[in-house]
Amino acid sequence: ETGVTQTPRHLVMGMTNKKSLKCEQHLGHNAMYWYKQSAKKPLELMFVYSLEERVENNSVPSRFSPECPNSSHLFLHLHTLQPEDSALYLCASSQRGVRGGRTDTQYFGPGTRLTVL
Amino acid sequence: SQQGEEDPQALSIQEGENATMNCSYKTSINNLQWYRQNSGRGLVHLILIRSNEREKHSGRLRVTLDTSKKSSSLLITASRAADTASYFCATGPDAGGTSYGKLTFGQGTILTVHP
Prior knowledge:
Chain A is mainly β. Chain A is 0% helix and 55% strand. By secondary structure, chain B is mainly beta.
C-alpha cells in the first residue's frame, strides 16, 4: 500500500464513450502525475500538476483531459479514445521541494488497466 | 532516444543467485532512482542515489552510480522467487530550473527468479 489509490482498476470502453479515471493520494504531497504504460514502451509522462497547477503537458492528445481539483485528487477524463490508447494508466505523487529543482521519490498507485474497443 | 536504458532486457536466474541490472543515461542528472513493478501493478520505489554519491545499500540491494560513464547498476543479492518483477531506473534532471519531480524512466529489466 503506497498511499495512492486509483479507481477503477479495470475499464473497458468503446471509442465513443466518456469515462474518467480517479486518483487520490493520502500522503500530503503537492505534486501529482499521470503516466501511460504501453507494452514494450517506456513509461510515458502525460501530465504533471504541482500545487494544483498544470505544469507539464507532454503533447498529449486532447481526448485526454486532466483535472486537479485539489492537491489530493487527480482525474483523467477520457473521450473518443482510440484502440491504441489501451494501456495501463498510472498515477503518482511526490513532495515538491520548496525552492524547486528537486526530484523526489514518486509514489505510484496500482494503475487502471484501460481497454478501448 | 530515451534517457534511461536498462540492460539486460530480461534476466533469468535461480533462487539464491545474485542479479545485476545496469542502466545508462545521456544527460546530467540530479539523482537516479530504481523502481520495481510487479506484473500489471504500480511501481514501487526501491532506492535513490544522488549524483554526488557513488554507492548506496538498502537491505539486499546495492546501487552504484558512475557519473563519468553515465551509468548505474542495481545488484540484488541472494535473490528470492518474490523478487520476480520488472525493474526500472529513472533519472531526475540536473536542477536547472525544474520545479517538480520530473523523472524519465527506462524500458526496464524483467527479472525472473526460479525457485
